[in-house]
């Protein structure tokens, strides 16, 4: 029987898939963010990328690819080579809302991706304008809407956004009759709230907190199951009288389907180290986010549950897109 010489065996092992995986990563990694640069999602992604880059010994380069409520970025990653060098910042929109919002979506949020981990949850805050500054809490707003059916304008950053759908969840739970007024982004919606064109809205904490502190709008409650450190004085919607209410935005990391498990494990361990870093947790908190960590399997189950939860609100809202 012919035996391989030691040098030949070493060459074969070096070229084997196991050796390649053991060396991962050997080049920079692309992290596709489904939103423009400078926004809260972009900042959260760059915070994680910077910490993980130091741990992995390779740069994680953030690339912004907006459009289609995140669908354009998600599709580009779904079709990328499953080698661990192209990742997606998965969000409540790309992997919770879009599967129901779009009747013809060019990716499958479950089958086309390999989950890595959830890393942050971001509650929305329910705010009212100057016309309702006398309200002491969410109950006052709900009582007002029930006493004035069809006369309350709810603003949002756009149809099918988490803020819009959080409002739909509140409407359905409390059997409210209100008018939805969508805007092209959170900033113009808040301007309309300050100007009195709308009565209330759910919006991101980073986009609202300076206006709340200045007194130009008033926060009544946050949409998460727990209070937000950024607005600790505000109760949750559940605490304010709507039991079981929860509607949070979130951010996680996913890779294309069929990415080797060894690569997923490397990325998960690196993300876990980042989330144990107090500086990283502080930077996430500055964006109104709370650090969260799930194993790849837990994150996969979470995504499937989110599709169902957000899907019910999408159907109720009538905001589906062809």
TrEMBL record:
Q: Which UniProt keywords apply?
A: Signal
One Pfam family matching this protein: TctC
The question of whether Signal is a record keyword is answered with yes
Superkingdom, according to UniProt?
Answer: Bacteria
Q: Which SUPFAM superfamilies match?
A: Periplasmic binding protein-like II
Matching CDD domains: PBP2_Bug27
Name the UniProt record assigns to this protein = ABC transporter substrate-binding protein
Q: Where are the transmembrane segments?
A: none
The record's similarity note reads: Belongs to the UPF0065 (bug) family.
InterPro entries with a match to the protein in the record:
BUG (IPR005064), Bug_dom1 (IPR042100)
- Give the matching PANTHER family: BLR1237 PROTEIN, TRICARBOXYLATE-BINDING PROTEIN
Signal peptide, first to last residue:
1-22
């Amino acid at each position: 029987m012919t035996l391989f010489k030691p040098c030949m065996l070493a060459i074969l092992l070096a070229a084997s898939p196991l050796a390649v995986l053991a060396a991962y990563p050997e080049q920079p990694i692309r992290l596709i963010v489904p939103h423009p640069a400078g926004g809260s999602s972009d900042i959260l992604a760059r915070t994680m990328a910077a910490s993980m880059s130091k741990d992995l010994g390779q740069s994680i380069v953030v690339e912004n690819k907006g459009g289609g409520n995140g669908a354009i970025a998600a599709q580009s990653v779904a079709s990328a080579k499953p080698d661990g060098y192209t990742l997606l910042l998965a969000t409540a929109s790309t992997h919770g809302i879009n599967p129901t919002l779009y009747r013809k979506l060019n990716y499958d949020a479950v089958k086309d991706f390999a989950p890595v981990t959830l890393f942050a949850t971001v509650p929305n805050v329910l705010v009212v304008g100057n016309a309702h500054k006398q309200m002491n809490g969410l109950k006052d707003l709900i009582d007002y809407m029930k006493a004035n059916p069809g006369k309350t304008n709810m603003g949002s950053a756009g149809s099918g956004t988490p803020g819009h759908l959080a409002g739909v969840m509140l409407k359905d739970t409390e059997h409210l009759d209100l008018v939805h007024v969508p805007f092209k982004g959170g900033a113009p919606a808040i301007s309309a709230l300050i100007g009195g064109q709308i009565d209330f809205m759910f919006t991101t904490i980073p986009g609202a907190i300076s206006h709340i502190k200045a007194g130009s709008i008033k926060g009544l409650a946050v949409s998460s199951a727990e209070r937000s450190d950024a607005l600790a004085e505000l109760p949750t919607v559940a605490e304010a009288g709507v039991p079981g209410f929860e509607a949070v935005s979130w951010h996680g990391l996913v890779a294309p389907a069929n990415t080797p498990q060894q690569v997923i494990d490397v990325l998960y361990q690196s993300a876990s180290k980042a989330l144990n870093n107090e500086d990283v947790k502080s930077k996430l908190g500055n964006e109104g986010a709370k650090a969260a960590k799930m194993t790849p399997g837990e994150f996969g189950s979470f995504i499937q549950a989110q599709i169902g939860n957000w899907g019910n609100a999408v159907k109720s809202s009538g905001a589906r897109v062809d």
